[in-house]
Amino acid sequence: RGAGFARSDDVICRTGAGALQASFAFISLRDDDEQFSTVLQSWSLPPRANLLPPGTRMATDPGHRDRLHADLVLAVEDVEMDDATADRRRVARKLGVRASLAAAIYSGGPRNGMILFAKDEPHAWNQEESAFARATASLVALLLSAQANTDTLAALETTDDAIFTEDADGNVQYANRAA
Q1: Which residues are bridge partners to 39 per DSSP?
Q2: d(CA 65, CA 43)
Q3: 103 near 73, Cβ under 8 Å?
Q4: Is the pLDDT of residue 6 over 70?
Q5: How far apart are CA 57 and CA 142, in angstroms?
Q6: Separation between Cα atoms, residue 96 and residue 90, nearest integer Å
Q7: Which residues of 53-84 are buried (b: 16+ CB within 10 A; e: fewer)?
């Protein structure tokens, strides 16, 4: 991830959590095997310690993942009453999370993830909050895609091979330094 994305996802976590009056937020991507997720960014309402810093790996709850895949947004009013795995409930308790609102992130590749906003008390999430979470996840997906494109172009500049692309009329659209 580039520095620009790191700054953007920090702003998204903080600002999104503020808009939803959440006490905690994080962005994560699932590993290729979908058994674990890695936190890209997180934020906790001060003075609370951030217990899921970037780079933290978490086991994926298959039920949560499948429900999120099906609906794109998953609102849990009370984690203690939700159909969650023991591990997810243990993590929620450790983080002080009672209500969560997750939205799926699809970045156009094989890896996907979520952005999750949480409150420390049970909360009945409404349609506007769900739509906000969905829009925020779409913004993160665009940022991830832009970062992947930037990384690809940077890699093309390091090769000694001449690489270029043309449009249908034969006009050069891209050429690396070697070209």
Answers
A1: 28
A2: 21
A3: yes
A4: no
A5: 23
A6: 10
A7: ebeeebebbeebbebbeeebbbbbbebeebeb
CA distance 96 to 153: 42
Nearest-angstrom CA–CA distance, 10 and 39: 12
Return the residue matching tokens 């494109």: 149
Distance CA 169, CA 166 (A): 8
Provide the whole-model pTM. Answer: 0.77
Q: What is the DSSP string of the chain?
A: --HHHHHHHHHHHHHHHHHTT-SEEEEEEE-TTSSEEEEEEEEE-TTS--SS-TT-EEE--HHHHHHHHHHSEEEES-GGGS---HHHHHHHHHHT-SEEEEEEEE-SSS-EEEEEEEESS-----HHHHHHHHHHHHHHHHHHHHHHHHHHHHHHHH-SS--EEE-TTS-EEEE-TT-
Task: For residues 33-39, give the mean pLDDT.
Answer: 86
pLDDT over 60 (residue 115): yes
Give per-residue pLDDT as tens, 138-169: 988 888 776 666 666 777 778 788 887 888 88
Whole-angstrom distance, CA of residue 163 vs CA of residue 101: 44
